[in-house]
């Protein structure tokens, strides 16, 4: 077996130990072929979407949707998930702050919020290993010491999606699946320790496109538990419903994972991205400015209500999504407005039936908690079945009204380039213009520009057609603005040239690039 040099560099981290590496190799041998065949299925289905197909509820799984079954009981420390904070796993200060934030759950992210440099990925594993053992500490350059409090949030870990590989760990010359790498290392080092401490190995599973992909995760769990001699059903996983195709198989996904399920979550940003991506060639499907695709537009309402209803029918928790607002420094009015937007977002979710929701920043934990405490005094509202809700396939794909504006196009260009630059610099989540931006939100930005250029209805509200030439002119102008905003020094020292080149590649390639993180990863360490 060939393993690669970087491993030596991290030997001291005690993460890529021989035993852990052997476990990863077993996962790879057993599941790599299936992973590849499922990715192939995605491509085949896309060809059908490109011909005009729309997703439907599957005839062959009708019995599952109509059947009377529930998921296995939820462990005690996942009963009350009213506020979940998320953040990149690789930053030790943020990890400590998140555990201490007062949120019930901390979703430690190897995915949307993490730029997957090998250093970030391995550091993330170290941070979590040490946090679980209560030994994680961090001293900031200003001397401030960060330590874990006695009362910590329950940990859920989000490995990367099935489409990514970890290029620093080769098996017979082939990179291992990033999902198996992130999951495998975390599980191997921590599953028994977590159980000993009264919790368990809990996960968030991102970017699944269908129930077959959930079944693969379930198979991985069964195998992993067997290998470590841990009782079957100990692993619990919440699946993000963040692709349009997965929404149509929400029931089936819960069913596949039912012994290991901890419900579903509405990953709204990737969900929007997924609709643009899947229907990119549909003449009737085009979205307005990103800022107009709110949670109130009919197809987003339909999706979230459908997820809430489906979860409760199966005794599963339904977890809401991420409002992009974060606290605004030095501007009280903008700050109050950001908090108000988050409050409204959480109010809608709790009233719809969600059992908890995400926040991006510790400063937002109290507001989300206050809303859930008010409307959900009990640990969760799973007993509240939403039989009153009926959602049709048509509602899930209803095209929203709205405008494409010059300002919306410019924001997509500017935010897209700035996010990619930050990501190439090793930061997977960044504040831009008072909003949290991560891989999912950046995907929307670049996908919209790609679509608006090609779609006959990609016309600005002032009548101009969005063209390559117009976008090219705006790229130059937006780069100049960015330089003014951040200063020439930061601009020169950054990776804006590469980020702009990648942004151009993403919008110029006729064949839509599935994820920006795939070509991006080639440029990352
Ligand atoms: C689409 C999706 O997948 S959403 C989920 C994935 N996205 C995320 O997880 C984004 C999470 N949020 C973040 O990464 C951050 O909030 C950012 C990057 C948006 C903003 O971070 P900052 O610029 O550091 O914010 P700010 O300066 O206000 O932070 C204040 C303090 O809160 C901490 N903090 C901010 N966000 C978080 C967080 N999510 N978790 C833990 N601590 C946090 C900072 O580390 C800082 O700590 P300090 O005072 O001890 O130094
Ligand atoms: O992962 C969450 C999302 O909104 O995307
Ligand atoms: Mg996502």
From TrEMBL:
Residues 404-524 form the Malate synthase C-terminal domain. Its EC number is 2.3.3.9. Pathway: Carbohydrate metabolism; glyoxylate cycle; (S)-malate from isocitrate: step 2/2. Residues 21-51 form a coiled coil. This is Malate synthase. Pfam families: MS_C, MS_N, MS_TIM-barrel. One of its GO terms (molecular function) is malate synthase activity. Residues 8-62 form the Malate synthase N-terminal domain.
């Amino acid at each position: 077996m060939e393993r690669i040099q970087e491993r030596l560099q991290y030997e001291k981290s005690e993460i890529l130990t021989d035993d852990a590496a052997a476990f990863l190799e077993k996962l790879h041998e057993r599941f790599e072929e299936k992973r590849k065949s499922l990715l192939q299925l995605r491509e085949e289905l896309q060809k059908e979407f490109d011909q005009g197909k729309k997703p439907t509820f599957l005839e062959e799984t009708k019995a599952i949707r109509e059947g009377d079954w529930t998921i296995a009981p939820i462990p005690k420390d996942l009963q009350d998930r009213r506020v979940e904070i998320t953040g990149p796993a690789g930053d030790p200060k943020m990890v400590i702050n998140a555990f201490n934030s007062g949120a019930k759950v901390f979703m430690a992210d190897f995915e949307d919020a993490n730029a997957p440099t090998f250093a970030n990925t391995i550091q993330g594993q170290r941070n979590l290993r040490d946090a679980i053992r209560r030994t994680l500490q961090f001293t900031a350059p200003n001397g401030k010491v960060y330590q874990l409090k006695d009362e910590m949030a329950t940990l859920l870990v989000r490995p990367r999606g099935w489409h990514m590989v970890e290029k620093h760990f080769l098996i017979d010359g082939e990179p291992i699946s990033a999902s198996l790498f992130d999951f495998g290392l975390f599980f191997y080092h921590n599953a028994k320790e977590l159980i000993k401490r009264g919790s368990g190995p809990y996960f968030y599973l991102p970017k699944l496109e269908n129930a077959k992909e959930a079944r693969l995760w379930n198979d991985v769990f069964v195998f992993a538990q067997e290998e470590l001699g841990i009782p079957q059903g100990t692993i619990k996983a919440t699946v993000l419903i963040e692709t349009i195709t997965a929404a149509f198989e929400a029931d089936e996904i819960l069913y596949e994972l039912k012994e290991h399920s901890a419900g579903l979550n509405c990953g709204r940003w990737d969900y929007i991205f997924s609709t643009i991506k899947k229907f990119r060639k549909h003449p009737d499907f085009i979205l307005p400015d990103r800022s107009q695709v709110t949670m109130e537009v009919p197809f987003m309402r339909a999706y979230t209500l459908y997820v809430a209803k489906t979860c409760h029918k199966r005794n599963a928790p339904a977890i809401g999504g991420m409002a992009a607002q974060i606290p605004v420094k030095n501007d009280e009015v903008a700050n109050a407005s950001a908090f108000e937007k988050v409050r409204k977002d959480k109010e809608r979710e709790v009233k719809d039936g969600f059992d908890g929701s995400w926040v991006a920043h510790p400063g937002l934990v109290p507001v989300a908690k206050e809303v859930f405490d008010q409307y959900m005094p009990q640990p969760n509202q799973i007993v509240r079945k939403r039989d009153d809700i009926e959602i049709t396939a048509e509602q899930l794909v209803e095209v929203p009204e709205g405008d494409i504006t010059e300002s919306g196009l410019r924001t997509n260009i500017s935010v897209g380039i700035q996010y990619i630059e930050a990501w190439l610099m090793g930061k997977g989540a960044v504040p831009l213009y008072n909003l949290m931006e991560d891989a999912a939100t950046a995907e929307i930005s670049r996908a919209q520009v790609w679509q608006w250029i090609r779609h006959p209805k990609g016309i600005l509200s002032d009548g101009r057609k969005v063209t390559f030439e117009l976008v090219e002119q705006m790229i130059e102008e937006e780069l100049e603005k960015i330089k003014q905003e951040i200063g020439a020094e930061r601009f020169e020292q950054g990776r804006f040239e590469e980020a702009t080149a990648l942004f151009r590649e993403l919008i110029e390639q006729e064949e839509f690039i599935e994820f920006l993180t795939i070509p991006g990863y080639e440029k990352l360490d």
